[in-house]
Amino acid sequence: MMAVSRTEPNILITGTPGTGKTTLGKELALQSGLKFVNIGDYAKENEAFEGYDDAYECPILDEDAVMDGLEDIISHGGVIIDYHGCDFFPERWFDVVFVLRTNNTVLYDRLVQRGYSGKKLEDNLQCEIFQTILEEAKESYATQIVHELPSNTWDERHSNIQMILGWIDQWKKDHA
Ligand code: DAT
């Protein structure tokens, strides 16, 4: 099956929980006019969970249901996806992958503020220290489309947004 040619790019924003994916993605959607889809919210709305992970204290995503449900909107392009994982999406979905990175002390404060503690807090901090999501992204997508972005301060968020808006414009010109 031939992919429909898209006039707007699909963007994956990934990274450890708390690195700022939703904050960045929503603002980016507002400023670019692209659609924003947070995978956790999407799964909740569409009951696309298949149980609860007691060790990680989070619902288990029904990945097949999520992918089937999103295939149509993704094929039209112009979607920003926000998720703390990236290895199960079809590679062809995304034109670019941004991996948000946050310093450990900053991330610690954000996660504590979110109510994380104990194993859940430790696991998420380790995920960032060992750059698990960055490695996952590099293994799942062509390395030239994977970009690491610092996400510690509001200034960094601002420059990330400006950079990505510029990237979107350029992509549209290249694919017009
Ligand atoms: P995620 O979607 O990756 O779990 P979030 O967008 O919910 O993260 O952000 C987590 C918290 O951090 C939230 O209180 C907003 C804050 N935050 C996000 N990006 C930030 C940035 N660049 N500078 C300062 N605070 C930020």
Automatic annotation (TrEMBL):
InterPro entries documented for this protein: Adenyl_kinase_AK6, P-loop_NTPase
Q: Identify the stretch(es) annotated as LID.
A: 113-123
Q: Which domain of life is it from?
A: Eukaryota
Q: Does the keyword rRNA processing apply?
A: yes
Question: Which reactions is this enzyme annotated as catalysing?
Answer: ATP + H2O = ADP + phosphate + H(+); AMP + ATP = 2 ADP
| The entry's keywords | ATP-binding, Cytoplasm, Kinase, Nucleotide-binding, Nucleus, Ribosome biogenesis, rRNA processing, Transferase
- Positions of region (NMPbind): 38-61
Identify one Gene Ontology CC term for this UniProt entry. cytoplasm
A molecular function GO annotation: ATP hydrolysis activity
Q: EC?
A: 2.7.4.3
Question: Pfam families, alphabetically?
Answer: AAA_18
Keyword ATP-binding (UniProt): yes
| An annotated GO BP | ribosomal small subunit biogenesis
Q: Which positions in this protein are listed as binding ATP?
A: 18, 20-23, 114
Localization (cell): Cytoplasm; Nucleus
Q: Which HAMAP family match?
A: Adenylate_kinase_AK6
Q: Which family does it belong to?
A: Belongs to the adenylate kinase family. AK6 subfamily.
**Assembly notes:** Monomer and homodimer. Interacts with small ribosomal subunit protein uS11. Not a structural component of 43S pre-ribosomes, but transiently interacts with them by binding to uS11.
Q: Which PANTHER family match?
A: ADENYLATE KINASE ISOENZYME 6, POS9-ACTIVATING FACTOR FAP7-RELATED
Q: Quote the function comment for this protein.
A: Broad-specificity nucleoside monophosphate (NMP) kinase that catalyzes the reversible transfer of the terminal phosphate group between nucleoside triphosphates and monophosphates. Has also ATPase activity. Involved in the late cytoplasmic maturation steps of the 40S ribosomal particles, specifically 18S rRNA maturation. While NMP activity is not required for ribosome maturation, ATPase activity is. Associates transiently with small ribosomal subunit protein uS11. ATP hydrolysis breaks the interaction with uS11.
Protein name as it appears in the record: Adenylate kinase isoenzyme 6 homolog
